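Re: the request from the purification team.
They wanted to know what the chain is likely to look like in 3D before they choose a buffer screen. I agreed to run a prediction and write the result into the notebook, where they can find it.
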Amino acid sequence: MHTRREIIAGGAATLVFISCPSVRSSAQMHRHNPIYGCSLPHREADEFFGTATESRLYLTGNEPMIPKSGDPDFDYALAQTLAKISDAFEVSPGFAYYNDYDGKNAYATKDVRSNGADGTVLFGEGLLKRCLEGVDNPDLGVACICAHEFGHILQYKHGLDTQVGAGQPTVKRIELHADFFAGYFGGLRKLERPSFPAAVFAVTQYGMGDDMIQKPQHHGRPEERAAAIVRGFEVAYQERRSLAEAIGISVEYAQAL
């Protein structure tokens, strides 16, 4: 029997299908413009912050987690995971939960609420609840989503979102580039703990793919999202590349899509 702490930190395999919550309702269309994908522009951030918990930095993994899951083991493990992602990507975003009443989602924004933070990651309370109600220990789905959003923070810090998204009619390259880094994190965790079921990240992002190829909010087809995870994983686990090397490879990868 694996505890939630073991699962999210790298335990038994699980298959998680979490639909990346695209903007569909009229209310959500009003609060977030889908052409920005999972990124919140400055003019939208304040409205989301208005329904969010306090923002915290997770740098050591020992910081107390914002309690929303109802499971102390899960909260502890998530705090450790966020610290590991921060260290792997060399970013320090604030993290908060927000009320995703208008569509279960998670976002990254350049706007900060904590001194010294590299932007903010907002995780929807409804999305968290959906993840935790899934079967087969779906905690890794939360870790994957967080790694993807931290990937956006990495983009902001180095100007990579502008670089890979220049001239594109959709956010696909930017989103797949963030998927690449989620896979990279999965590869690092596999190196650290051989039992870590990194393949679950690819399965999770496959479930988030969409076929809206003509719409600005198109994130990538299912197979493209899984492939981006796999490529990032290879760069970390098989090629043992540093973060600086991975950034260069990731840009080439995204620009070739």
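For the purification team: The chain has eleven helices and five strands.
Please add any questions underneath this entry.
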